[in-house]
Amino acid sequence: MAALFPINRSLTGPGVVETLERISAVVPLQVTEVPSGTELLDWTVPDEWSLQGAHIADADGNHLIDVADHTLHVVSYSEPVAATLTRAELEVHLHSLPDRPDLIPYRTSYYSRTWGFCLTQHQREALGDGPFDVLIDSTLAPGTFRYGEAVIPGTDTEDPTEVIVSTHTCHPSMANDNCTGLVAVMAIGGHLLRHPPRRTHRLLFLPGTLGAIAWLAQNPDARERVHAGLVIGGLGDTDPLTFKASRRGDTVVDRVAHAVLPRRDASFRPLSFSPYGYDERQFCSPGFDLAVGRLSRGQHGEYPEYHTSGDDLAFVDADRVAEGISAALEILRGIDDNETLDNLSPYGEPQLGRRGLYSSTGGAIDSRSVEMAYLWVLSGSDGETDLVTIAERADLPIDAVVEAARRLSDAGLTAPRARGGH
Ligand code: ZN
Q1: Torsion (CA) 263, 325, 149, 143 in degrees, nearest 10
Q2: 170 Cα: distance to centroid of ligand 1 (angstroms)
Q3: How far does residue 176's CA lie from ligand 1's centre (Å)?
Q4: How far apart are CA 65 and CA 285, in angstroms?
Q5: Ligand 1 center to residue 178 CA distance, Å?
Q6: Mean pLDDT of the region 80-99
Q7: Cα 318 to middle of ligand 1, angstroms
Q8: Rounded distance from Cα 341 to ligand 1 centre (Å)
Q9: Residue 419 pLDDT
Q10: Which uninterrupted H or E stretch holds 67?
Q11: Cα distances (angstroms) measured from residue 61 to each of 2, 132, 134, 139, 330
Q12: Ligand 1 centroid to 310 CA: how many Å?
């Protein structure tokens, strides 16, 4: 996070390139490049923006505000300006937060041409009467829009479906939103590379909104191919783990998250779908309607540091990010391990002791849970009920149910009907 934090990211430009390069050193990325002007669903790729420098100086040349001090000082996508302005002329281009006078706000103007500076209310009040020399040394010209994806092939080469994990790459120097999302998906990628999943996992590093629109436009088979997915961001603040359901609300990611998260965090916060937030808005749009939920903590606008300079590295806590990563991995594992079984000995209970199943207990899972998990899996193996539903009914960890199912299958007592659930 400390390495990614200072980079001046935006929708496009060198900050995105540098960020994708740094991510690629951990999780190798394929970078897709889309030229400015390209139509993507209902959107058009704007010009590429890069910023060489920007300041507001007084008549003596002293820099009163300088983007070198904080990337948030310039409105992202500001067009170039070099002018001497009165205070009144400058005033309409200034953004501050009177109710939070020590924080610099984050502002963008991707789709309408303008320029502006963001500063603390205290800085604004101390600017003086002018005149001011204002410089924004930026380039806004036809170029390239980029996003990165890492494909981690599944061990089950027969299964064409995928799980997606997505985070947004467009925010400049803010830690919770969204350096935590970047490092979380990087860590998930590193883990999956070391422990290959059954189903192919695709990690998406997308500039917000347009990145998801671009990926969906270029993957028109997403509705059939994406089994489930998670959008991840904002994992480092003090709020409890929060899961926002997919639009359908009862898909496999929703059911797994609701089986996993309350066991990890007693104050877990479930949210139903709303058409606002991160890129779940795009993945869950009715034309695609993917089984994609969102894992985060604090929500947009609910904490005073949101989209300001107060969202710095001191605002986030590494242990809370790590807990979020661990929770995400447990959800992804639950999705990957889920299946529907047939009980091959459904007439009365099979005799487990004779098959050594009661004696093979031990390890991380206590033996009572394992015995109960055997009975619940056998009872639920009716060819229709999946392991996540069995775990919920049994009030057992998914891992315990999956392990019991594996041992029952090894003992010849169950056979898979269908992978995955819906
Ligand atoms: Zn944001």
Answers
A1: 120
A2: 9
A3: 9
A4: 41
A5: 7
A6: 98
A7: 19
A8: 42
A9: 65
A10: none
A11: 32, 9, 10, 23, 56
A12: 13
Nearest 10 degrees: Cα torsion 342, 152, 146, 2: 110
Tokens (6 digits) for 60: 């003596």
Average pLDDT, rounded, for the chain: 95
Q: What is the sign of the dihedral through the CA atoms of 140, 166, 23 and 307?
A: positive
Q: Is the pLDDT of residue 360 over 80?
A: no
Say if CB 36 and CB 144 are below 8 A apart: yes
Tokens 């309408």 -> residue: 112
Comparing CA positions, the residue from 164, 161, 211, 167 lying closest to residue 41 is 211
- For residue 52, report the distance from its CA to the centre of ligand 1, in Å: 23
Mean pLDDT, range 97-118, rounded to an integer:
97
pTM equals 0.94
Q: Which residues surround ligand 1, an ion (CB under 5 A)?
A: 177
Residue 252: C-alpha distances to residues 202, 225, 361, 387 (Å):
17, 14, 29, 11
* pLDDT, mean of residues 381-392: 95
What is the CA(172)–ligand 1 centre distance, in A? 10
Say how many Å lie between the CA of residue 203 and the centre of ligand 1. Answer: 19
Q: pLDDT band at residue 357, thresholds of 50, 70 and 90? A: confident
Q: Residue 40, by phi and psi: left (phi above 0), alpha (psi -120 to 50) or beta?
A: beta
